Amino acid sequence: MSIKPKLNTFDLTMIVVSVVIGTGIFRTPVEIAQKAVVPTIFFAAWIAGAIISLFGALTLAEVGSRYPKAGGFYKIFSHCYHPAFAFMVNWISVIANAGSSASVAIIGSDYISPLLFPNLDRETGTRITTIAAVLLLYGLNLLGIKMGARTLNVLMIIKIGVIIFLISMVFFNPAPPTPTLVSQLSAEDSLKAFWLCFVPIFFTYGGYHQTMNFGGDVPNANRTMPRAIFIGMGVVLVLYLLVNFSYVQVLGFEGLKNSPALASEMTSVIFGTATSKVISVILFLAVLAYVNASLLSNPRVYYAMAEENVLPAAFKKVNPKTQTQEIALTAYVTVIIVFLFALGSLQQILNYVMFFDSIGLIAACAAVFILRRRAKQAGEPEGIYKMKLYPWMTIIFIVGYALVNISVMYFEPRTAFIGFILFIIGLPIYYGLQRVFKS
Questions:
Q1: Count of domains observed in the chain
Q2: DSSP assignment of 228-268
Q3: CA neighbours within 13 Å on the CB side: how many for 252?
Q4: Is 419 exposed, middle or buried (0-12, 13-18, 19+ CB in 10 A)?
Q5: Residues 307-311: contacts with CB within 8 Å, 24+ apart?
Q6: What does the alpha-carbon distance between residue 372 and residue 211 come to, in Å, rounded to a whole number?
Q7: Rg (CA), the chain
Q8: How many CB atoms lie within 10 A of CB 196?
């Protein structure tokens, strides 16, 4: 009998920090500043996003503790709802993951495109760079080139190092920009601005849902899970607030609104353009590593879906020489390229990604109500994590993400309509595939 791996508080804390801190913090503050209009709403949105995300992480930790299965985030939908609904969530998650990869690729390309195409306008140069980078990674993955865990650990060290470096720039800035006078917003406009921040805020705080996959790997779950999640999300919040404070202090709030390549532009202000170019290259390579990891991992989701007979068997094909899932990889890259050609702008892609993600996260957190009711009927198991302040933390989280969904529907009705249609299409596809594979 094999020994089950165990995670201590430090292990789980580092997992929380690493899955939340992506590359969004180097770009989304621009979108958030534009929507917030004033610094007060800007920082309030970051704090609110951390609190709501913490509530979601604690809820999903209990869900994972009650249903400790590998890949539990996807299996929970079938367990608590219906296999058809699980497929529909998987279906849009696959699209959302491609959208996330597209958005991250845009963030990295924003840094490097002015160096590669100095005579082109920024949007055109960024689009060319993004598509070229994705196609380059696609070609490398077809050859069987893989990225190991050590490289991904180095990437995490680079990201944390860059964040700390950006925070330290507050102390190097000899003359902070003169604050620009901003007109006062009415109460109604303030609430609207705060609400509009939710899409890029929750995108930047995303990833914590993966905590539910570790519910069965944590001893003393009642103590270890909440402690690790509180510490992990606390570290993320402190880093995010400090780096955003540094952005505002060095660039000014108005400057922040117009600085798509934040890290390089801040470095340029303090140390000159030569250093900023180095930072641009480092962040571009870090983003390439992230996107490459996405190209490695997401075709495996297609493989798992094909194993469950909800995708054609072709998605299980693996090249015996390179160990590459050529069909699944091609399908995934195709969806990324469609996002880049059809939309192009970061905000448009974020709207689609968060519309899809909010459906899955709301349903996953709501599963705690079903699991608790079943446990009450069958008898409460021992050794699981049970969150405090139930059900209020879960309700607040669900309301927060419902507002994300509603904001997309209200401000981007076309995006919401297409997203909803794509979600519903998953239902006939599921039953159609079931019929094909049963016949």
A1: 1
A2: HHHHHHHHHHHHHHHHHHHHHHHH-HHHHHT-SSHHHHHHH
A3: 12
A4: buried
A5: 309/433, 309/434, 309/437, 310/87, 310/90, 310/430, 310/433, 310/434, 311/433
A6: 19
A7: 22
A8: 21
Sort residue 252 into left (φ over 0), alpha (ψ -120 to 50) or beta: left
Identify residue 192 by its one-letter amino acid code.
K
Report yes or no on 2 lying in a domain: no
Give the C-alpha separation, 47 to 32, whole Å: 13
DSSP label at 308?
Answer: T
| Residue 188, token pair as written in the block | 């109604």
Q: Is the dihedral of CA 252, 256, 259, 264 positive or negative?
A: positive
The number of beta carbons lying within 10 Å of the beta carbon of residue 228 is 26
CATH number for the domain spanning 130: value is 1.20.1740.10
The per-residue pLDDT for range 145-171, each reduced to its tens digit, is: 554 445 556 666 777 788 888 888 888
Residue 330 lies in a domain: yes
- In this structure, are residues 75 and 247 in contact, taking their beta carbons and an 8 Å threshold? no
CB 70 within 8 A of CB 213: yes
Domain membership of residue 1 (yes or no) is no
Question: What pLDDT, in 10s, does the model give residues 251-305?
Answer: 888 889 888 778 888 888 887 777 888 888 888 877 777 787 778 777 877 777 7
**Full domain range(s) for residue 117:** 9-438
**CA 380/CA 74 separation, integer angstroms:** 23
- DSSP letters of 25-86? GGTHHHHHHHHH-SHHHHHHHHHHHHHHHHHHHHHHHHHHHHS--TTHHHHHHHHHT-HHHH
**282 contacts: CB under 8 Å, gap ≥ 6:** 158, 162
How many Cβ atoms are within 10 Å of 18's Cβ, its own excluded? 18
Residue 389's identity, in one-letter code, is L
Q: Is residue 4 part of a domain?
A: no
Q: Please tell me the distance from the alpha carbon of residue 11 to that of residue 16, in angstroms, as a whole number.
A: 9
Sign of CA dihedral 380, 383, 385, 390: positive
